[in-house]
Amino acid sequence: MADPLTREGDGILGSDEIFSRSKVGPQDGAFQGQSSYTMPHPQQETGPDPAAMKAAAMAQNPPKSFCKKSKLGTTPAWIAALIVAPGQLIYAMEAVCFAVNLPIISDRLGVDTSVVQWVIHSELLICCGFGCLAPKLAEKFGISYVYIASSYTFGLFTFLITFFPGSLPMVIICRLLASFGLALLLPLGNPMAYMMTSKAKLPIVLTVNSAATPIGTIFSSLVSGAIAQSSEWSYMMTIIGLFSMLHATYSIFLCLRIRGNKAAKIDWIGALLIIVAVTLIIFGFTSISEAMPWYAGTLSLLFGAGVFVIFFFWNTRWSKCPLYVKSAFNPSVAKNLVAMLMASCMYFGERFFFPYIIVRYYKYNSIQNGLFSAIGGVLSIAFSPLFTFANKKIVARVIIIIFGLTYLVAMSIEAIFLHVHEALVVIMGTICIVSFIALLISIQTASMANTPAKYAPTIGSLNSIMNNLGHSIGIALAVTVQSGVTRSLSSVGDANAPEVLQSSIKAGILSCTFFGAVLVINAFFMGVLKSDRGKCGFSERILARTKHFPENINNSGEMVEIQGDTYEAAQEQQAITSLYQPKFL
């Protein structure tokens, strides 16, 4: 059985890792003054590492759980999935509920649909802005405690919407507070899976987590519309809120009680800067998609970019406890984040037009629209195990290229042949959904599986921010292009003519091919690791130019001399070494 921290016996520790120990002395099990390296990598950090010391402490006193099967690094995949997947599930359910029932909600609140759209956008602003706090809060208070508290927060305030279905101020307040819980819940899901499961079972949990999104979409598409039409739209919020609180309650018994570091400091100035920057940027893109005055979006984007530049210099030069340490970034991480951003932009931009095509162009009702969307969700769930298996046999960059091109072709056919038949649009749209799930699984697995433990919360937070940012950018560009085409065509004819709607939707969808092209080009420059040997697409030439975390390049952990031959001393040594070992597929 593999050691839960070191992965010894699980194929993780490299054969070239040497434990240098001397005879037992009066200071058995104590570290000597400095770490000694053999052929240090140029990117390797030097000096004492608090995360390494924490790992050594975990080796002597591993976190416990009320569930006997929950153990650090050896938790069964189904338990980890029960903890992690509901976050994506409830997120999809709530988002789809508002999107499907938009006309009903606007009538019940007595406001225009554009106002209700901003109730939806408020969640995006909060999730993207406050998501940056998740890694630091997890470090200070413990990742499991923050995760459970955020699920309770989201569930409670979502449930409270039940009692105010006709009050716009109360719906906005509850929505904002619930979104704050969601902003912390989503980025910590994959890091929780990383810490609880073994390297072999991590892709399974990540696949289930990715498949939870289409499952939530299917369920909410079919149920929320029926509930809203037959009784009250807010009753769906009751279901979602109770489910979230149920998830938080059983997670108390299944999660590991991983304590935080009370001495850890949070850079509140940096947090404020990044929250303001991200909020202004997303507000700018969203205002463009909502047809607000051009100067509103332009000023928001300019101010947001300016604040982000200030945050960059603050985080890298002036802050004593930066939100994002420089050592967490390298070219490979940057390319993974670009891939996540481009995939999200492409998907959300293209999906934005699907209800317009089905309901407005082909004149189907909202329930039929939900059924058409459910087809893609069902097939995504069916193909998810195949995508997980593919990640074990094919390098991530090749999978991203294949499904990126597949998405591009399907999206182009959907747009160009929009007028032919609705069946062709549904089939191509389904291929797009399935391709996006394949991209999501590949990008997230490559990102999390190859990340050292100390950077897992940071990478999880950045992935969540890229996903939400892509949502805003993709829709903004697509709607801007569509609106421009509509204005130009309506100047010479009827703006409500089917030909105008058809041409504007085509232009909007085709504009998203830009993101797909960037995604594929970026994938050609992504690297491989030594663990990818034997997979389709591996190349020693690509490996030689890959710049990743140093422990993933040389496969030799930090070597620390230890005095003593005691069991505790060996555990401390192995814990520090394992901290620098990635969890490969």
UniProtKB/TrEMBL annotation:
Superkingdom to which the source organism belongs: Eukaryota
One Pfam family of this chain: MFS_1
Basic and acidic residues composition bias: residue spans: 1-10
Comp. bias intervals (Polar residues): 32-46
Ranges annotated as spanning the membrane: 78-103, 115-133, 145-164, 170-190, 202-227, 233-256, 268-288, 294-316, 337-358, 370-387, 394-417, 423-443, 464-485, 505-525
PROSITE patterns from the UniProt entry: MFS
Subcellular location: Cell membrane
Domain Major facilitator superfamily (MFS) profile: 80-534
GO molecular function: transmembrane transporter activity
PANTHER family in the cross-refs: BLL2771 PROTEIN
Protein name according to UniProt: Transporter, MFS superfamily protein
